[in-house]
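Predict the holo structure. Ligand: pyridoxal-5'-phosphate.
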Amino acid sequence: MSQNTHLIYLDHAATTPVDPRVLEVMIPYFTDFFGNPGGVYTMGRKAARAVDDAREMTAEILHCRPTEVIFTAGGSESDNLAIKGISASLRKRGGHIITSSIEHHAVLHTCQALEQQGFTVTYLPVDSFGKVRVEDVEQAITPETILVSIMTANNEIGTIQPIADIGAILRPKRIAFHTDAVQAAGYLDLNVAHMQVDALSLSSHKFYGPKGVGILYLRTGQRITPQIHGGSQERNRRAGTENVAGIVGAAYALQLAQQEREQESARLAKLRDMLIQKLTNTIPNILLTGSTVDRLPNNASFAIKGIEGEALLLNLDVAGIAASSGSACTSAVIDPSHVLVALGVGAEYNRGHLRLTMGHSTTEEDILHTAEALPPMIESLRSLGSPAATADR
Ligand SMILES: *Cc1c(COP(=O)(O)O)cnc(C)c1O
């Protein structure tokens, strides 16, 4: 095996570095034009103008009006604001929410919090590829249903959902439709009219922008109860002094991501397919998780029999490869990922989740090196007999 001297970063679904072009446009708003956009003096107006420009740029990409764009402090906040804010504003109409069982925790835990407040939530199952069935959404609707939240693309397995088809069912029924599009921004078209959504969440650090900046598209006419009270920023929908540099960076990063997405998607899909082919050919008892067709171009994820994902990640780290696993190590036990459980991946496999997500820095060499490094690591973990493997016997 060739010696690897640089870090191979295969965790772009967790976060991405700030693109140097993005950092460059942000810097003046930390130093020269630091004024509060609420200020009436020139420097404040300059900051307000930058936020307005960022809002217009974002609206152009989403094919919406600038007034329909709300800047938040991240993807989690956008999801919370959409789900809590819309359901509170529609409480009188009904108390039923529909979501899927494979959503990000920012959606799942928000729905669970609403259940504590008396809302009823249906968590739809998915098929073995991780897809929500449009018929299931339709069948789950009751006269009490006020909101549906289904993610555009899954963060663990990369499965892309039929958002426009779901939107087409909900719109005539006047049920609000929110989608968490955080993982989709770099790779899919974000035209909110085509998607037929009323609300859409984005997070800047997933597309080479700064961390702690989120975007929420909210369709005109869709009411929302603010979750942060204070000043009148964001048209009274989200109080707090605008993160001017962050907003400038997020909008520019989104523009770059959308301009470059077709070319980058084609490049990464080739690397993804090469990696999937090599690993499934060389490692016995490994399953590709997710869809082979409706899949993000940068996601390769697997369930590996008889190992624990966390142990594999530590081995990869020693070899200079950063990857991740959906399973979370809470206390002493390893919980299998809720996504793999929803897919119906069996107990022998679902602790061995491996997610490799590619991005700007990923080269063919990185993929070849990773494909070479993994088989002996997995073989040795299996022969050591990790607790998961022992439990199977
Ligand atoms: C990362 C992520 C989030 C959370 O975004 P933050 O900006 O980290 O709060 C929400 N949903 C999905 C699908 C994500 O991948």
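The chain has 13 helices and 14 strands. Residues 8-16+261-384 form a domain with the Aspartate Aminotransferase, domain 1 fold (CATH 3.90.1150.10).
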